[in-house]
Structure formats: structure tokens, C-alpha cells
Design brief:
This protein is an all-alpha fold. It is about 80% helix and about 0% strand. The longest helix has about 45 residues, at about 160-204.
């Protein structure tokens, strides 16, 4: 059989059994919310890195007494270590998203569950920082208000302790709610759009 015979046989082959990926367009429609997640993640990574640097100068900017520097930078070093750990995790997540090519159902599933996993990681990051932020807030309030009014922290009554307790608990709960709303607004609603595409593919 020469080349012409082979070509003729090839042309006569039936193509009815060839299955084209007709859902490829639907799968790739998830690229739009994915791009928004990547954009928000990149922007937030930069802002958080700048915030960590800015916090280092807080005692100087707000004129904290020099005897408090040691305590502040002890807390700041712990805060920075926790932040770096989580920011590295989020950066690696961002790199994975950049390398994603949504061409199959499997890639879409993997990307969606990676997003969901890292949304929970982000929440954990926020909750891990909450105690440090509360301590920073207490220190800032004390040196901004209480020293000027002459309050002696060695001789405080029970009402002040109750107010402080309620303030701390309220601040932590409020931060938790704000964190949930923040994650949903910047990541969760786009993850739902991807989930919607997955559900539509299941129905086919």
C-alpha cells in the first residue's frame, strides 16, 4: 500500500466516534473568577507585607516610652514570625493558581478544592494574628489615653477589669465576623462561581 492508498483510507475513516470536549468552554469560564481571586490575593499580599513593615515603626511614630520597646518588639517578632509563615503559604498558593490551566474537569476540581483549603488557611491566619492585634490595641490605648489621664495600672478596680474583659471579647468576636465577611467578599463569592460551573458539569 503506497502513500496515496494510505491517505485515501484515512480520508474514508468515519469521524462519528470522535468526541470533542464540548464542555471545554464551560470549564474555561471559571477562569474569570479565578483571575479575580489571583488579583485580590496579589494585592492583599503586598498590603500585608507593607503593614508588617509599618508596624515596626509604631513605637517611634506614636511616641511610646522607650522602656516599652523591649515588650513591643518581643510581641512584634512573634507577630512577624507567624505572619511570614502564613504569607509564604499564601504566596505558594498564588504561584499554584498562576500555573493552573483549566482544560479538564479534574483540573477544575483540584483548583476549586485548593481555593477552599486556602480560604480556611486564610481564616486561620487571621485568627492567629487576632491576639497580637488585641495586645497592640490595648498597649496603644493605654499609652495614648490612660497615661495622660494619670490612671495607675497598679491600682485598678474591678469595674475596669470587667470593661477590659468585655472590650477584648467583643474585639475578638468582631474581628472574627469581619474576617469571615472579608474572606467571603474577596474569595468566597468567586469560589462559589467556580462551584456553580462544577455543578453544571455534573448535570451533563
Amino acid at each position: 500500500m503506497d502513500f496515496n492508498d494510505i491517505q485515501s483510507a484515512w480520508n474514508n475513516e468515519k469521524t462519528d466516534n470522535v468526541v470533542l470536549p464540548d464542555n471545554l468552554e464551560k470549564i474555561q469560564s471559571a477562569n474569570t473568577p479565578l483571575d479575580k481571586i489571583k488579583k485580590n490575593l496579589k494585592r492583599e499580599f503586598i498590603y500585608q507585607a507593607l503593614a508588617i513593615v509599618f508596624l515596626a515603626f509604631t513605637p517611634v511614630i506614636y511616641g511610646f516610652p522607650k522602656e516599652t520597646y523591649m515588650l513591643f518588639y518581643l510581641l512584634y517578632s512573634l507577630f512577624t514570625a507567624v505572619s511570614i509563615y502564613y504569607l509564604v503559604k499564601l504566596f505558594l498558593f498564588y504561584k499554584r493558581l498562576n500555573a493552573v490551566a483549566l482544560k479538564t474537569k479534574d483540573s477544575l476540581y483540584e483548583t476549586y478544592f485548593d481555593i477552599r483549603l486556602n480560604m480556611e488557611l486564610y481564616k486561620t491566619f487571621g485568627f492567629a494574628l487576632t491576639p497580637f492585634l488585641v495586645l497592640f490595641l490595648i498597649g496603644f490605648m493605654y499609652y495614648s489615653f490612660y497615661q495622660e489621664s494619670g490612671v495607675d495600672m497598679n491600682n485598678i478596680d474591678s469595674s475596669f477589669i470587667i470593661v477590659m474583659f468585655v472590650t477584648i471579647v467583643g474585639s475578638v468576636l468582631m474581628m472574627g465576623v469581619m474576617l469571615e465577611l472579608w474572606v467571603y467578599y474577596y474569595y468566597g463569592k468567586y469560589a462559589r462561581e467556580i462551584r456553580k460551573v462544577i455543578d453544571e458539569l455534573k448535570e451533563e
